[in-house]
Amino acid sequence: MLPDPDATLLVDLDGTVADQLPRVCEYLDTAHGVDITPAEIDAWSWPVPDPAPHAHIGETIDELMQERPEWFLGSLDPIPGAVDGVTALSDAGYEIHVATHRIPETHAVSKAWLDEQDVPYDRFVHDVPANKGRLDGDVLLDDYHANVANALDAGTAGVLVRQPYSDPSACEPAPVADGWDDIVDLFGV
């Protein structure tokens, strides 16, 4: 059961509010001639085909965060409905804490993006542990099933935002949202 307003929502960025995979696919195509679509990336360990220099997609994302943060993170499109959805939750009284595993060096870019997109938030969590279940909050909204499972294990509610790489069976009984309309409906906003 999801809490009433006044609760703290831990909201992930990539794959939850920001649509990072189209930018990753653009980079792989222009830099390495690898033509893929976001729908093909069905795991964070998805093997990047030759001639790309990385073994899996997670390594590519790490490289982009470290070497091209402005290009990568500064111009992402929001997930459809995310800005209106987060705004509706905020307006309903939920406290919004951004909880992302982006590296600390990208936090200024991330905050600028949130401001440019008019995404309301009350706090940007700077030190997010690998296990998001250790964060202080009432509900975790995240696209990665392991993060939602960690929250559930810690006694925090979780909502899985479905992406091609999400595995709902890994974080049962968390509700699964196919988009921000589902999230807003889950919270009755």
SSE diagram, text form:
Blueprint: E1 8-11, E2 18-19, H1 21-32, H2 57-67, H3 69-73, E3 77-78, H4 82-91, E4 95-98, H5 107-116, E5 123-124, E6 139-142, H6 145-153, E7 157-161, E8 176-177, H7 180-186
Parallel strand pairs: 1-4, 1-6, 4-5, 6-7, 7-8
Antiparallel strand pairs: 2-3
Helix pairs in contact: 4-7
Features:
6-stranded parallel sheet, 189 residues, Rossmann fold, alpha/beta, 8 strands, 13% strand, 34% helix, 7 helices, two-stranded antiparallel sheet, single chain, globular, 2 domains
How would you describe the overall organization of this protein?
There is one protein chain. The protein is an alpha/beta fold. The chain has two domains: 8-19 and 78-186, Rossmann fold; 21-73. 34% of the residues lie in helices and 13% in strands. The protein is built from seven helices and eight strands. It has helices at residues 21-32, 57-67, 69-73, 82-91, 107-116, 145-153, 180-186, and strands spanning 8-11, 18-19, 77-78, 95-98, 123-124, 139-142, 157-161, 176-177. It has a six-stranded parallel β-sheet with strand order 5-4-1-6-7-8, with helices on both faces. Strands 2-3 form a two-stranded antiparallel sheet. Helix 6 links the parallel strand 6 and strand 7 (157-161). Helix 4 packs parallel to helix 7. The longest helix has 12 residues, at 21-32. The protein is globular. The two termini are 15 Å apart. 39% of the residues are buried.
